[in-house]
Amino acid sequence: MARLSAARYGKDNVRVYKVHKDEKTGQQSVTEMTVCCLLEGEIDTSYTQADNSVIVATDSIKNTIYIKAKEHPVNPPELYASILGQHFLDKYAHISAAHIDVTVHRWTRMVIDGQPHPHSFLRDGQETRNVEATVTRDGITIKSGIVGLQVLKSTGSAFHGFVRDEFTTLKETWDRILSTDVDAGWTWKKCANLAAVQDGVERFDAAWEAARNITLKTFAEDESASVQNTMYKMCEQILDAVPETEKTNYSLPNKHYFEVDLSWHKGLQNTGKDAEVYAPQSGPNGLIKCEVSRS
Ligand SMILES: O=c1[nH]c(=O)c2[nH]c(=O)[nH]c2[nH]1
């Protein structure tokens, strides 16, 4: 016997752009995001009995994403995701959960001749601001984050004292390059309803800015003993800075840069204290993850 033990469906990769035109100043602001919206509920018969009467078509879900972006603010993304998810619960009695993922892409205002340009923007990096909201009739859980923020420090990182045995070839180092693509998240205490998300809505932008600043400052200033220890310090500070969060997490690849021994060529010294030219590695890479909660 088979049993449908989990099911959700919806539209993924819905790309949305919204412009805000300030009539007074003539300044325009833009937001570009990619949205995924998946629904759960009493939809089992659509899988098990070909009963399409319980299906809100994924095409209609896509339309709803655009309509809600028109009717409501898309910033902060935590609010837009909550509004969008709440719509599906309010509209369809048989839907019990809406899972909304929003990925916001960077469009940073250009500065031309020292002045912020009123309507021109540049993509300054692949970094995105990410939100995962799960809306149910019991409340709204939101996880916010940063993905794809690429950073490198050319010194101020060590790695020694690790297990040495018959499997070990890595040398200990007191000075190495540290580089990663930051994937950071912070999970908010559950909101009872949409009004609770809206109440003090500025906390979402403030938390994103704090988390980003903490990440960069700690990465730059920490005399890193390991990726593990540096990311833990970041997590602790985010929990301190954003009291409405219950846990925080990082997932950091350790992007290796190998020294190149060039001594075979006319005795060129390029290792240890003489290292200047390195070979960046595309893989394999370390991958270090953690989640830190309030005790
Ligand atoms: O910061 C690090 N953590 C590790 O677990 C590890 N493992 C490794 O080979 N290099 C590093 N660096």
TrEMBL record:
Quote the record's binding site residues for urate. Answer: 58-59, 159, 176, 227-228, 254
Per the Swiss-Prot or TrEMBL record, the active site comprises 11 (charge relay system), 58 (charge relay system), 256 (charge relay system)
Q: Where in the cell is it found?
A: Peroxisome
UniProt entry keywords in alphabetical sequence: Oxidoreductase, Peroxisome, Purine metabolism
**Which positions are annotated as binding 5-hydroxyisourate?**
159, 176, 227, 254
One GO CC term of this entry?
peroxisome
The family database entries (CDD domains) matched by this protein are listed as:
Uricase
Span-the-membrane segments of this chain are: none
Q: Which Pfam families match?
A: Uricase
Quote the catalytic activity from the record.
urate + O2 + H2O = 5-hydroxyisourate + H2O2
Q: Which family does it belong to?
A: Belongs to the uricase family.
Stated name of the protein: Uricase
